[in-house]
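Journal club prep, notes for RB
We'll compare a predicted complex against what the paper describes. Inputs for the 2-(butylsulfanyl)adenosine case:
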Amino acid sequence: MAASQHTSSTSGKAKKRIEELRKQIDHHNYLYYALDAPEIPDAEYDRLLRELQDLEQQYPELVTPDSPTQRVGAAPLKTFSEVRHELPMLSLNNAFSDEEVYDFDRRVRERLGVENVEYHAEPKLDGLAISLLYERGRLVRGATRGDGSRGEDVTQNVRTIGAIPLKLHGSGFPALLEVRGEVFMTKEGFQQLNSLQESQGLKPFANPRNAAAGSLRQLDPRITAQRPLTIYCYGTGIVKDGKLPDRHSMIMQKLRNWGLRISPKAKLVKGAEGCLEYYRQMATERNQLPYEIDGVVYKVDKIAWQEQLGQISRAPRWALAHKFPAQEEITRLLDVEWQVGRTGALTPVARLEPVSVGGVTVSNATLHNQDEIERKDIRIGDTVIIRRAGDVIPEVVSVVESRRPTDARRPQLPTHCPVCGSDVVRLPGEKVARCSGGLYCPAQRREAIKHFASRRAMDIEGLGDKLVEQLDEKGLIRDVADLYYLRQEQLETLERMGKKSAQNLLAALEKSKKTTLARFIFALGIRQVGEATARELASYFGSLERIMTASREQLQQVPDIGAVVAESIYIFFREKHNREVVDKLIAAGIHWPTTTNRNSGPLPLAGKTFVLTGTLESMSRNEAKEKLQALGAKVTGSVSKKTGYVVAGAEPGSKYERALQLGVPILDEPSFLELIG
Ligand code: IVH
């Protein structure tokens, strides 16, 4: 008797803790995926999940299907079963020119008999369409589009995607809600997956789209679970027992508040002109996006108008896909040259017969490294397929072997640096070969200076590649610190450098002295230390001195820094020359604000700007403002592109409209309360 009482009270305690953990994990999932504002490091999240897993293992009777631990576990299927879409999953009509967009807008206005139409403009993601069915907020089915009327039941696979909530967040959702969106892979996830495939002797995927499709249509959900899939939702299907807002843009905000991921790039625009402006903007941003898009989509924002417009055959009259021009082309490989980078790495660069790829003339492309050349069996003289996509630098994808001329020859890795003549070495286990010349090699020195001056580093405006080369050639700079000791009369001796531009450069140098610790660390060009690592270092240690003097072990305490990166940082600061350069830079007047929170890490909302609108039920606007500020956020009075979030209470004003136009995420009161904890 006593024993059983004891057990039931322990399990009562466990039940409480399990519920608490699930609530916390759901909260962090919401912050991480839907709001893109994580509040705790990954390691802490993993700890919560592990604790929950352990408890559930101890008390299997307490496991529920929507527990965050229940993402994987289903047995492999023999085949997928069929799903009938109650409302068909439509496709989109395509446009490739401005004229077609004007025509679309004109047809829409004529049919509706109105003068002006607002469109919700969204990136067109290159993945595959998915339907997610939520019953009373619980994910009960995931299905592919198939032919639009019938798709495949991929529920078990969809459940493994962390970005898809198993349970909707908050309240107020319809009893039955079908959400539609695109499952895709980021460029980085795709590259990691392909390296893994190759290291296991498996065939790499041709592009992120194929990789996403292949991963979602796996009969074994354990395989899907290992694939870096994510989602952006872009619409709804069937809705029962509940109402959604009467505008598409507002429905999207609702979905976000319910924990679904919505593209932060979506925007409300006016008329054909607004659409085209958005298209051009996205075309320029495209290469910097972490995922691939193949165009943009315009949707009439008012749902009543969408209904009035209806559809013809399988595509709605109220939406249009405006595609980017094709991004692959065929050309001839004329030669292969070897470029020396900042770290001495030799990169083979393909010199090509110039060809226009998606409107840009391409005459150079990267071949990545010697192994890639061999794997793809690329030879000088070959006809090659080039792609201008993911990266800013176009790449050679493959060879058209049937067109290989008889005199095609294999590119050779040079034994000596083509710039300084030092030996080229390739360490065992490394993919790249490097020039061993260090800063003696002009190429390495110049690249280090270019990196230092670049926008995301010290942001020295006007110090372009050509200028760096001239300064180095004339012997005016030997290291990055010399930049800050340049004098007007020295600069004026340079080609194409008048009095005015010399003054401008000196002013830009002066301006760059005011920076942040993270930027400064990044600018130093320590191997393996990218922007994210630099930020981690800065917020963890809080001062340069502490980073420079940290031991290997201390460095490894920083989130995401492992033994290799720690070693690289440690060695960098033990090198006398590097410490001298750092001292010289500080002596030149480079400075940054010192942080107060040294060990506790940055405040959770640091760097984020909020705007409040409408009436909140739970607190006054002033209280809300103070709460946000206490978490490090900035609260301002007007909405701009830089606004992080708009918090909308009851009867929001024009700021709400403006947020929709600019694509700024809007939080309702419950989501706001959750964010501030
Ligand atoms: S809306 C009726 N929005 O493009 C609306 N589709 O060519 C149908 N896609 O099957 C879809 N991004 O897989 C919509 N922002 C977006 C999209 C998008 C990608 C895909 C989707 C669809 C295909 C149609």
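Talking point for the session: The two ends are 42 Å apart (CA to CA).
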